[in-house]
Amino acid sequence: MTLAAETYDELREIAARYPQARSGLLPMLHLVQSVEGRVTPEGIHACAEVLGLTPAEVSGVATFYTMYKRHPVGTHHVGVCTNTLCAVMGGDEIFACLREKLEVGNDETTADAPGLQSITLEHIECNAACDYAPVVMVNWEFFDNQTPESASQLVDDLREGREVVASRGARITSWREAERVLAGFEDGLVDEGPAAGPASVVGLELARERGWAAPADVHGSADVPEEPSEAVEEADTRRAESETIAEEASDD
Amino acid sequence: MSDVTLKIDGADVTVPEGTLVIRAAEQVGIEIPRFCDHPLLAPVGACRQCLVDIPDAGNGRGFPKPQASCTIPVAEGMVVETQNSTAVKAQHGIMEFLLVNHPLDCPVCDKGGECPLQNQAMSHGQGETRFEGTKRTFPKPINLSPNVLLDRERCIVCQRCTRFAAEIPGDPGIALIQRGAQQQIGIAEDKPFSSYFSGNVIQICPVGALTSDDYRFRARPFDLVSTPSVAEHDACGAAIRIDHRRGKVMRRLAGNDPEVNEEWISDKDRFGFRYAVRDRLTSPMIREDGELRPASWLEAVAVAAAGLAAAGSVGVLPGGRLTLEDAKAYATFARDTLRTPHIDFRSRPLSEEETEFLRSRVAGTSVTYADLDAADHVVLVGLEPEDEAGTLFLRLRKANKAGLRITTLSPYASEGSRKLGAEVVLTAPGAEKDALSQVNGVTDASVILVGERLATSQGAYSAAADLADRTGARLAWVPRRAGDRGAVEAGLLPGEGGLDADGIVRAGLDALLVAGVDPDDTADPDAFLAALDRAGFVVSLEQRVTAVTERADVVLPVATASEKAGTFVTWEGRRRPFEKVFDKPAAYSDAEVLGHITTSLVEPASAASGVETNTASSSAEGDRVGLDTPPPPSLREGAPSLGASGRASSPDDLTRSPSGSGGSTDEGGFHLATWHLMLDNGTLQSGDKALAATARPAFVRIPAALHEQLGDVVTITGDRGSWTLPALPAELAEGTIWVPTNSFGRGVWADLASPGSTVSVEGAK
Amino acid sequence: MTDTLTPVLTANWGDERAWTLPAYAEQGGYDALDVALGMAPEDVQTMVKDSGLRGRGGAGFPTGVKWGFLPPPDPENPKPRYLVVNADESEPGTCKDIPLMMASPHTLVEGVIISSYAIRAERAFIYVRGEVLHVIRRLQAAVREAYAAGHLGTNIHGSGYDLDLVVHAGAGAYICGEETALLDSLEGRRGQPRLRPPFPAVAGLYASPTVINNAESIASVPAIVKNGADWFAGMGTEKSAGVGIFSLSGHVKKPGQYEAPLGITLRKLIELAGGVREGHELKFWTPGGSSTPLFTQEHLDVTLDFEGVQAAGSMLGTRALQIFDDSVCVVRAVLRWTEFYKHESCGKCTPCREGTWWLVQVLERLEKGDGKPEDLDLLLDQCDNILGRSFCALGDGATSPITSSIQYFRDEYLAHLEQGGCPFDPATSTAWAESK
């Protein structure tokens, strides 16, 4: 089965974003996954055709990156961070728990069961959320500060098709829809979720509590001047003010 | 570029600026161990085996850590230590890592005995490993192509093969796949590695990871005898090495000749050698009561001599597989023994215009591969290097990557042209003359390369000559067969009042002497066969059973290239002498056989002794029997120039050429463009199954609009027949379709259409 | 004296809908762009150079100096210039760029525009790791908003300057944080490091002059432009100027992001974070991710600036402070990191590819108690054969946890052999261990 004409059009659209079409290959492979549920030989041929590469060259790229899957991925992809810090903080236990619960090994997908969504379970490397350890990712959305119990509930909800909302992110759609966003096609969910989780602002809140700030409080003013020249003046003024404050502070 | 002096292991070395340390070391005989490094591939620094200590980078400061000498350029005053404790520790460390996952199965490995890993592990390793763990294993082996196999656990992922494929022929059909410790060489799931040059990856693999289906498990390197030779499959003169055991070729490898093929050869040159053992003629034969029967050399030669002597008129068609020595023997034989002017080496469509062109513009000239490197512009006309001249293709591609501009006047924008970075001027067959008059940017530093296909394009050779004369550009003719250029040098063209090959076929001469000619290659195969039937007496000098031997009155077996010494002349005009590989007692070169016939004609009674003598001692001297007769007059004398003699083509000759129009033809048909794919049904490829399996699938190329209309299978009908074939859309000259010459049936000229004619194309019938 | 914590990049993270353009503009967002566009590009470059900003991705190379490596435009052979933002944050322990881009993507976008202007780039790319969906959404939307508001595209703010910016999602490869591997990846290839020279400044993306900077570095630029080079240089230490985000994770009471002047100590940071987990003591920590040699209790007062950390035998790296208390087995931690390097080794060079394969096997048997004391020397020798021999810094990084842990905890390795296994109970180190 070759890909649909619309998919070819979108592949070309991705390639056209770049000065050199080949730069589009990574997002193009994300799109292939969103359409095919994995990187299929047909998808490889389509990318090769659009970019004027050999299928071998595309395969070389597709097999280099861990987000590209050669086997069908479930409705949802659940990644448990088991890099050192998360592992120590309980990631190992969470992964073992989910493995047992879902009866799958690493990078395997649950067997089809009527009325249940399938899940692909994988242990993943550090996902840059160490201050929320242990971390679980669902379709590459953050689920922070997990425990075996919370993770177990999470996969139950996913399997049963109940609404699940990321700790810092949007409500969960599906792995394929997530892959489409990675291909550069927005899904309208950007405004869901908070700006930052609690750990992200722990230092900020402490600073506010204690009245600490950088010498110029660059983000403090609400009435921002429209004209650039005024902005400069305003900045200068604020710097002068903050310098005064700093001097006062150092007097303490 | 200025020179730089540095110190390597205490020795001063002066090399050009920009030289890599590893190359500089070679110049003073210091061997730094290496795997990924290859002088003809871009440096990659992957294997790290060539680490050296550089205590002074030339600025008084050293590198804190060992450096890869394959990627670091020399600097004035640099101090390099390749054997101090730092360097040795680093090299041992890398070697140990390489062997961690290597199976160490040298005793059962084809590479054992000639393996850079094995050798360098001995010279630069510790002898014992500290690794006690589990080795990486893979199911073995996998087919990268029908002919190239990969044993992944032996691979050290140096990337020589993938770099070769991408950089040299431009066929990146193998690639690194996976990552980290699982990284391996691979292909796309459903797409085997396809390259006319795929065998080179086996040869440059520094371990036993890549093997050929052909040679795998067939021999040990130390049991083989190696003889350098020259490839006989095209006019490029690639240096090869023939490895043989007990009279049998086990494999062929690329020789290293920087002036010609560097270190690369085509797969045809490498894997095409079984023709020499299949369907071979084993003894002379003579026709008796309509049937061929084996005969002694004495008898057969006597019959041949008698038959030729009795004939009133004899035509000689020696074909294109000859060495220069054989060609000269034919020239002498025709002129002095048979006293016939009817001789022509060409065994494919030809023209009177070409005859003159070869005499006046090709014989005695020289344009070399190096001249192509130095050129500012190379114009290709009627020539598809990737298919027709593999070595030339690689050299042109390399030159293009270094900046050479290439223009090709071609009926379709082929993959080969794309790989050459060539600007394609779409030119319908027959329209080359006009197209040549419009080529821009040709100067006295340019080179025009014309192919033998121009014989079917009226005025094209002359237009090429005009272009060269007008601009001062140099001109060279690139034929397809190894003996073609030598035949031109030997003067195997019609003499005064002589008939060319087409004329000989038409004329109904009394007798024909035919050597390496496949009738199906000629302009009118049926006419050729009819001429054989019609001739009162036919002598065939052949290697194998062919349509000619089946019709001959006397069949005299001759030696293949590996059974005789000789010289091929490349398209450049370069002499490529080679030695005899196999000393087979009854294998006579064409020249020897002609010598026997001559002897028999001159003194019939003594013929027997002459034959027996040569049979008994087929020495180097014996090989030259045919040359014992006086050499032919100098080529220049024998070949009046076009200008001097003013021999113009007769109107009758011109009718054989197609019209020069690039548009669709009057009848609404299509111009038939054609050339031979490198791997096709050619005689010298028969029997090499793995090679044949790597041939590109043959397709007809038709205009995209037509493809849209007719689909993937079309029926083409010409004046000689009809073919229903798979078709692909392509960018073609207007009103043109392209069909591979010899990939279907008996070939285009026998089954489909006459040269220069038009064909019709319809949906599949 | 500068305050202990100095929120600059993090200052607006708590704001309502901070990721949107209106919210960012309300806090003075894109004012710095006007300031920059009112200056000559060279002057913006000089300003960044004078600020003392050093690369926040780990290497600490002065950002303005890096920009200065671009060859002057060649009228004979005009080549486009590119700015590429390295937002492939994957170094274990590092978690600063991701929250920054999620909370305030416009800070980065504005930084990209100003930096591109400064180096006269006509195209810019944000290469963000693929495994952070919501961050990518926020970046995509921010770029879309910026185009709509005239901050990107042609004739930005009427200045005549044009810039296009593409958000590019990676696909899972730690090595792409290495800048030349990132370029190959951005060109649609396998993310394997390139030979240098040529350096990216001369022949980077598409063989054109290219600057590659870490996301935090580029995000720091608007504040520098707005407040001046002296303002930035006035914070931090003499050679390690300005502020940076310190990411505390692991066994502290309040893990999270702490933005402070460079030169703060871990002692101070742990104090701010409420101390190490109750009833436990600090055992070892990484100053800048797993590729930086481990520190212990004895390094609590090392000043966390480039010079201070280096002098103490490690690297400031990405200020990824992973805190491990005494419940953690160092051998287990090091083995897991080594497995990570093995998994992420790109495979290009022998020592990294084969070395990490082998290291894991030796560490595995040590952890199980199956090893021999000599294995420690074997490990150190393997590391010696990798360090400085591999093609890029990934191989070097792989050796850091091993050599440093053997340096500080040799006895703990030996204890595994003596006891025939790991003396630690992994359950005691989990986040929920205390509450159970």
Automatic annotation (TrEMBL), chain A:
GO terms for molecular function: 2 iron, 2 sulfur cluster binding; metal ion binding; NADH dehydrogenase activity. Residues 214-252 are annotated as: Disordered. Its cofactor is [2Fe-2S] cluster. Residues 224-234 have a biased composition (Acidic residues). Keywords: 2Fe-2S, Iron, Iron-sulfur, Metal-binding. It comes from the Bacteria. The keyword Iron applies. Gene3D superfamilies: Glutaredoxin, NADH-quinone oxidoreductase subunit E. PANTHER family: NADH DEHYDROGENASE [UBIQUINONE] FLAVOPROTEIN 2, MITOCHONDRIAL, NADH DEHYDROGENASE UBIQUINONE FLAVOPROTEIN 2, MITOCHONDRIAL. Belongs to the complex I 24 kDa subunit family. This is NADH-quinone oxidoreductase subunit E. It comes from Nocardioides albus.
UniProtKB/TrEMBL annotation, chain B:
This is NADH-quinone oxidoreductase. GO terms for biological process: ATP synthesis coupled electron transport. Residues 611-620 have a biased composition (Polar residues). PROSITE patterns: 2FE2S_FER_2, 4FE4S_HC3, 4FE4S_MOW_BIS_MGD, COMPLEX1_75K_1, COMPLEX1_75K_2, COMPLEX1_75K_3. Keywords: 2Fe-2S, 4Fe-4S, Iron, Iron-sulfur, Metal-binding, NAD, Quinone, Translocase. Residues 86-125 form the 4Fe-4S His(Cys)3-ligated-type domain. SUPFAM superfamilies: 2Fe-2S ferredoxin-like, 4Fe-4S ferredoxins, Formate dehydrogenase/DMSO reductase, domains 1-3. Residues 2-86 form the 2Fe-2S ferredoxin-type domain. The lineage of its organism: Bacteria, Bacillati, Actinomycetota, Actinomycetes, Propionibacteriales. Residues 224-280 form the 4Fe-4S Mo/W bis-MGD-type domain. Binds 1 [2Fe-2S] cluster per subunit. NDH-1 shuttles electrons from NADH, via FMN and iron-sulfur (Fe-S) centers, to quinones in the respiratory chain. Couples the redox reaction to proton translocation (for every two electrons transferred, four hydrogen ions are translocated across the cytoplasmic membrane), and thus conserves the redox energy in a proton gradient. Residues 605-668 are annotated as: Disordered. It catalyses: a quinone + NADH + 5 H(+)(in) = a quinol + NAD(+) + 4 H(+)(out). Gene3D superfamilies: 3.10.20.740, 3.30.70.20, 3.40.50.740, Dimethylsulfoxide Reductase, domain 2. It is an enzyme of class 7 (translocase).
Automatic annotation (TrEMBL), chain C:
The keyword 4Fe-4S applies. Gene3D superfamilies: 3.10.20.600, 6.10.250.1450, NADH-ubiquinone oxidoreductase 51kDa subunit, NADH-ubiquinone oxidoreductase 51kDa subunit, iron-sulphur binding domain. GO terms for molecular function: 4 iron, 4 sulfur cluster binding; FMN binding; metal ion binding; NAD binding; NADH dehydrogenase (ubiquinone) activity; NADH dehydrogenase activity; quinone binding. PROSITE patterns: COMPLEX1_51K_1, COMPLEX1_51K_2. Pfam families: Complex1_51K (PF01512), NADH_4Fe-4S (PF10589), SLBB (PF10531). One of its GO terms (biological process) is cellular respiration. Its EC number is 7.1.1.-. It catalyses: a quinone + NADH + 5 H(+)(in) = a quinol + NAD(+) + 4 H(+)(out). Its cofactor is [4Fe-4S] cluster; FMN. InterPro entries: ComplexI_51kDa_subunit, NADH-UbQ_OxRdtase_51kDa_CS, NADH-UbQ_OxRdtase_suF, Nuo51_FMN-bd, Nuo51_FMN-bd_sf, Nuop51_4Fe4S-bd, Nuop51_4Fe4S-bd_sf, Soluble_ligand-bd. Keywords: 4Fe-4S, Flavoprotein, FMN, Iron, Iron-sulfur, Metal-binding, NAD, Quinone, Translocase. SMART domains: NADH_4Fe-4S. Residues 331-376 form the NADH-ubiquinone oxidoreductase 51kDa subunit iron-sulphur binding domain. NDH-1 shuttles electrons from NADH, via FMN and iron-sulfur (Fe-S) centers, to quinones in the respiratory chain. Belongs to the complex I 51 kDa subunit family. This is NADH-quinone oxidoreductase subunit F. It comes from Nocardioides albus.
